[in-house]
Write a structure and sequence with these properties.
By secondary structure, this protein is α+β, with helices and mostly antiparallel strands. 16% of the residues lie in helices and 37% in strands. It has a 19-stranded mixed β-sheet that branches. A two-stranded antiparallel sheet has the order 14-15.
C-alpha cells in the first residue's frame, strides 16, 4: 500500500514568557492553510500532536500542557499604523479542535522578535542598537499590543539578565504594553457589576468578579471554595473532582458573562473564559522551593487554563488580574487590600509577577487604558516541521 510522503513547513519553536509555541509566517503555510478553516486547523493539530487519547502529544511538538500546546501565525499587518498581525491558536490536547477565542499574553513576548527576524518589520524601524518598538495587531481579540524588543548590532538580542519566575534561565527583557485591554464591544464587567453572585447548581453560590480585560476571567475567593490561594499544581491537578467543579463553575460563569448561551457550549471553548481564585497575601513555598514572603506581594492568585491549574500565570490573565486590582471593590482589589492602585504584584505557583494597569470610571462604566508587564523570549529551534502530506 502506497503512503504519501511527509511535507515540511518553515517554522520556529519559541519560548515566550512561561509558554512555548510553534510560530509560522502566514506566507510560509501551505496555500490551503493560509485562510481560516478546516485545513489550517488540521495542520496545526498534526504539528502539535493532537488529538492524543494518551494525553502526551508524543507524535508532535506539543508538551502535553496548556502552556506548550500553542501555535502562532504572524503576517505583515493589514491594519494602519501596525507592523504585524498576530493570530493565536490554542490547540486542545485530547480533542480535535483549535480554540481561536482569545490571545496568549506570554507568547506575545515572542511575536515582535519573530517578526523582526522574519523580515516582517520594515527595516527602517529597526535600530542598529537600542529598542525596536513593534506595533502588533492581535487578531483574535482585535486589540493593539506594543512590544519593546532589544536590538544589538541590528539583530534581536535574546540573552540577558532578566529573570522571570517560572522560567529557569535569565534572558533579555521585553516590555509589553496591552493597549485598551478591555472588551471594546461591551462593558469591562459584562454583568455591569464588579461583584456578582454566581450560582452553580449542585455546587453552591459564590461571590465572583467577572471581567473582560486581557482575557475573559472569572475570579472567586479561595476561601469560599476551600482553598488558601497558596496551592501548587500537584494540589489541584491530581484531584479529578476538583477539576470537574472548576469546569462546571467556569461553564456557568461563561453563560453569565454572555460568552456562551448554554453550559454545554463550554466544552468547545476551553481557552476562554479563565477561572481563578484569589486570597490575601501570605507566605508560601513556590514550585521551585523558593519562599515567597507575604511582604513581597499584594495578593495570591491561582488560575486554571484548559482545565488544569497553570504552573505560573497566563499573560492575558495577568492583565485581567492587574485591571481588576485597579478597580475598587472587585474581589482581586479587596484581596489585595482595597483602595486605588496602578500596579499589583501577585504570587503564583512559580513565584511572583508585577503588572501595571490603569483603569478609570467613565459615565458609570469602568474602562482600562493600558496594562504593562515584562516578559522574555528565546528561539529554541528553527527550520521546518514535518507532517504527513494527507494531513489536510
Amino acid at each position: 500500500m502506497a503512503h504519501v510522503p511527509q511535507i515540511r513547513v518553515p517554522a520556529t519553536y519559541i519560548r515566550g514568557g512561561t509558554s512555548k509555541g510553534v510560530f509560522f509566517r502566514l506566507q510560509d503555510l501551505p496555500q490551503a492553510c493560509q485562510v481560516p478553516g478546516e485545513a489550517r486547523d488540521q495542520l496545526l493539530l498534526r504539528v502539535i500532536g493532537s488529538p492524543d487519547p494518551y494525553g502526551q502529544q508524543i507524535d508532535g511538538m506539543g508538551g502535553a500542557t496548556s502552556s506548550t500546546s500553542k501555535t502562532v501565525i504572524v503576517a505583515k499587518s493589514e491594519q494602519p499604523e501596525h507592523d504585524v498581525d498576530y493570530l493565536f491558536g490554542q490547540v486542545a490536547i485530547n480533542k480535535a479542535f483549535v480554540d481561536w477565542s482569545g490571545n496568549c499574553g506570554n507568547l506575545t513576548a515572542a511575536v515582535g522578535a519573530f517578526a523582526i527576524a522574519g523580515g516582517l518589520v520594515d527595516s527602517s524601524r529597526i535600530p542598529q542598537n537600542g529598542i525596536c518598538t513593534v506595533r502588533i495587531w492581535q487578531k483574535n481579540i482585535g486589540k493593539t499590543i506594543i512590544a519593546h524588543v532589544p536590538i544589538t548590532d541590528g539583530a534581536v538580542q535574546e540573552t540577558g539578565d532578566f529573570e522571570l519566575d517560572g522560567v529557569t534561565f535569565p534572558a533579555a527583557e521585553v516590555v509589553i504594553e496591552f493597549m485598551d485591554p478591555a472588551d471594546g464591544e461591551g462593558s469591562m464587567f459584562p454583568t455591569g457589576n464588579v461583584v456578582d453572585e454566581l450560582e452553580v447548581p449542585g455546587i453552591g453560590t459564590f461571590k465572583a468578579t467577572m471581567i473582560n480585560s486581557g482575557i475573559p476571567t472569572i475570579f472567586v475567593n479561595a476561601a469560599d471554595i476551600g482553598y488558601t490561594g497558596t496551592e501548587l499544581q500537584k494540589d489541584i491537578n491530581a484531584d479529578a473532582e476538583a477539576l470537574a467543579r472548576f469546569e462546571t463553575m467556569r461553564a456557568y460563569g461563561a453563560v453569565k458573562m454572555g460568552l456562551i448561551a448554554d453550559i454545554a457550549e463550554a466544552a468547545a471553548r476551553q481557552h476562554t473564559p479563565k477561572i481563578a481564585f484569589v486570597a490575601p497575601a501570605t507566605d508560601y513555598v513556590s514550585s521551585s522551593g523558593k519562599t515567597v514572603e507575604a511582604s513581597d506581594i499584594d495578593v495570591c492568585v491561582r488560575a486554571l487554563s484548559m482545565g488544569k491549574l497553570h504552573h505560573a500565570m497566563m499573560g492575558t490573565a495577568s492583565v485581567a488580574i492587574a485591571t481588576a486590582a485597579a478597580v475598587p471593590g472587585t474581589l482581586v482589589n479587596l484581596a489585595a487590600g482595597g483602595g486605588l492602585r496602578e500596579a499589583v504584584t501577585f504570587g503564583h505557583p512559580s513565584g511572583t509577577l508585577r503588572v501595571g494597569a490603569s483603569a478609570a470610571e467613565v459615565n458609570g462604566e469602568w474602562t482600562a487604558t493600558k496594562a504593562v508587564m515584562s516578559r522574555s523570549a528565546r528561539v529554541l529551534m528553527e527550520g521546518w516541521v514535518r507532517v504527513p502530506g494527507d494531513t489536510f
